[in-house]
Amino acid sequence: MGNFRDALRTQRWDDHRYYHHSRINQTLHLVSAVSFLFSYVMIFKDPAISALAGWLVAMTTRQTGHFFFEPKDYDVVNRATHEYKEEIKVGYNLRRKVVLLTIWALAPLPLYFDPSYFGLFAPAADKTGFVRQVAMIWLALGIGGPRQGRSDRPGLGNQNPHRSVSRHQALPQGAVCAFAGRADRSGHRPPPLG
């Protein structure tokens, strides 16, 4: 369990230092976090409202920050290219987020052609019922939707999830010297940036 916590700590640190430089993005993440808290409370009272808050407010503000306000050029502070950061990202990097958001946007489309959504719903009587059905589809997507498993990248997709990930395979050639002491960070956590 200790190795799992170390790996999680490393992943969280990477996410923080690589993807949260912009103050606008940080502010949007605060709005997103508050919206997610609201969503978590509402899931017990009204799951449809929870899904709407989670997908329409929390996810859109969070992803807007990443897509439009985070710099995509060379990261001088961390001495890493955008491509390197995308390659080592555990979970949803920008490419996988595009796939997820496309699935999210298209998931309600069958309601247009089949108001029962393949027999899962009674056809909506009004616009409010339709919106609630869309919300329930999004809730199902959020709970059981696509999982981010990567087995096509050697050294990353087939790793034991209970130990730190060695990322020396993913280092861009120009960054090898800069990251020489940090390729395997299983016991090393860099100090916070000032």
Write down the secondary-structure element order: HHHHHHH
Number of self-contained structural domains: 1
Overall average pLDDT = 78
Question: Residue ranges: pLDDT <50 for 5 or more in a row?
Answer: 149-191
Head-to-tail CA distance between termini: 30 Å
Taking Cα atoms only, what radius of gyration do you get, to the nearest Å?
A: 20 Å
C-alpha geometry? elongated
Tally of helical segments: 7
Main beta sheet strand tally, sense and closure: none
Query: Helicity, in percent?
Result: 40-55%
Question: Got a strand count?
Answer: 0
Backbone structural class? mainly alpha
Instruction: Tell me the fraction of residues in β-strands, as a range.
Output: under 5%
Topology:
Layout (H helix, E strand, L loop, with lengths): L1 H18 L3 H20 L4 H23 L12 H7 L5 H13 L3 H4 L13 H18 L50
Can you walk me through this structure?
- The chain is mainly alpha-helical and 194 residues long.
- The protein has one domain.
- Helices cover 53% and strands 0% of the residues.
- The protein has helices at residues 2-19, 23-42, 47-69, 82-88, 94-106, 110-113, 127-144.
- Helix 2 packs antiparallel against helix 3 (47-69) and helix 3 packs across helix 7 (127-144).
- It starts with a helix and ends in a 50-residue tail after the last helix.
- Residues 149-191 have low confidence and may be disordered.
